[in-house]
Design goal:
Elements: H1 2-10, E1 22-25, H2 31-38, H3 41-45, H4 55-63, E2 69-76, E3 79-88, E4 96-103, H5 112-126, E5 132-138, H6 142-150, E6 154-165, E7 168-178
Parallel strand pairs: 4-5
Antiparallel strand pairs: 1-2, 2-3, 3-4, 5-7, 6-7
Pfam family, one: Acetyltransf_1
Domain N-acetyltransferase: 21-180
Organism: Pseudorhizobium tarimense
């Protein structure tokens, strides 16, 4: 029994939630900081982004956002430490949208993902009248899967060899949440 208690005592304390975290709309002026975020190895590892993303690519993505899409950033001490977005589907799928998000490598586990996801779900349900929110997440991203489950997303399937990442193919879960 003592060895179990010692193992518990030896675990590092969970980082504190960030006081003063804000969520706001992304703007074209954020392109440089969002690009720097996307080029972090841990951030990129959980996305479909290629290494060495250019600022021009990010600026184009921000400038040419489609109708029904919303891009958000999480800021802390005047630095962008996370971003996320929601993209509504068209025509017979206009009741559904896809979300994607990521958090700065140094700020994981501190409530940034929860804050972004809370805002994205709120916008989808309360402003866009979305009924179904979808996402894909790599099967080895345990923290992200746990976050999505905490917000009511359910695994609907496994996409085998979904993407090529760091020299090998990786699977992804497709997850969704329905407004009831």
């Amino acid at each position: 029994m003592d060895s179990i208690q010692n193992d518990i005592d030896d675990k590092p304390a969970r980082p504190a939630r960030l006081e003063g975290l804000t969520i706001r709309a992304a703007t074209p002026a954020d392109a440089e900081e969002i690009t720097a975020l996307a080029n972090l190895p841990g951030y990129r590892y959980g996305t479909l982004r290629l290494p060495f993303q250019r600022v021009a690519e990010t600026r184009k993505w921000l400038d040419e956002a489609s109708a029904g899409s919303i891009s958000l950033v999480a800021t802390y001490q005047n630095q962008i430490i996370g971003n996320g977005g929601i993209n509504r589907f068209l025509e017979r799928r206009n009741h559904a949208a896809a979300i994607g998000m990521g958090v700065h490598d140094d700020y994981r586990g501190r409530g940034v993902g929860s804050a972004l996801l809370k805002e994205l779900v709120g916008v989808a349900y309360n402003w866009l009248n979305i009924r179904r929110i979808e996402l894909t997440v790599y099967t080895d991203n345990d923290a992200a899967v746990a976050l999505y489950r905490k917000f009511g997303f359910e695994i609907e399937g496994r996409l085998r060899d979904f993407a090529f990442r760091n020299g090998s193919y990786v699977d992804a879960f497709t997850m969704a949440r329905l407004k009831r």
